[in-house]
Amino acid sequence: MRRTVLSVLLLVSAAVVGADVPSGVPTNVKKERQRAEKLPPCKACTVLVNSFREGMKRTERSKHEGGDAAWEEERLGSYKTSELRLIEIQERLCQDVGRGEDQCHQLAEDYESRIEEWWKQHQNDHPDLHRWLCVDEAQVCCPDGFFGPTCEPCPSCFGNGKCKGNGTRKGNGKCSCDEGYDGENCDRCGPEHYEAFRDSEKLLCAKCHKACAAGGCTGAGPNACRVCRTGWV
């Protein structure tokens, strides 16, 4: 009896798996599509830098307890900025990337001389590789809080949203408000929300009680509903 039940379960499982993967379609199609995906310029540069940073973490070498401290300091210090370490990082660069891996490899080739320049000459005075490469050199990103071709300052959005294009050379800088907020500068509550707190610098909005129908509310609780849902009084 147990064998019969087990056989049935195996047949059902096989049928389900077969239904998930259509016949004739390779199982690695999704991965191949992710690798070939084209990312926006700033995102692509950021992906490359993140992969390089992972390589730096991977090639870190710590001191060994009980060893010759002076000798290790000299050896590890020279390795930290060495050509050998750079090669070790570059050998596996972009291999940890999912989306846009092919683009990452191409970008690593395009930016190879710039990355080598940063590695040999600018690690100390410009420790942030993303800022040095993607913002200042390649000019495909902006610092956080800036947007557009010339990296203009983003509006504050009252702390309740982000400006369109933030951190990139794209966008129009207009506020994209978080859920529950509205207005050009995200300085008022959206539909079905009410002001829970406000001062000259901050606005907090909260969702109306579930008893409230369209039209929102004036405050917390069911008694503040402008119109009640069916079944509520």
TrEMBL record:
Pfam families assigned: DUF3456
Signal sequence segment: 1-19
Keywords from the UniProt entry: Disulfide bond, EGF-like domain, Signal
Protein's GO biological process: animal organ development; system development
Claim: Transport is one of the keywords in the record: no
Domain EGF-like: 147-187
Disulfide bonds: C177-C186
PROSITE patterns: EGF_1, EGF_3, EGF_LAM_1
UniProt-listed SUPFAM superfamilies: Growth factor receptor domain
InterPro entries (alphabetical): DUF3456, EGF, Growth_fac_rcpt_cys_sf, LE_dom
Transmembrane segment boundaries: none
Lineage top rank: taxon: Eukaryota
Family the UniProt entry places it in: Belongs to the CRELD family.
Protein name: Cysteine-rich with EGF-like domain protein 2
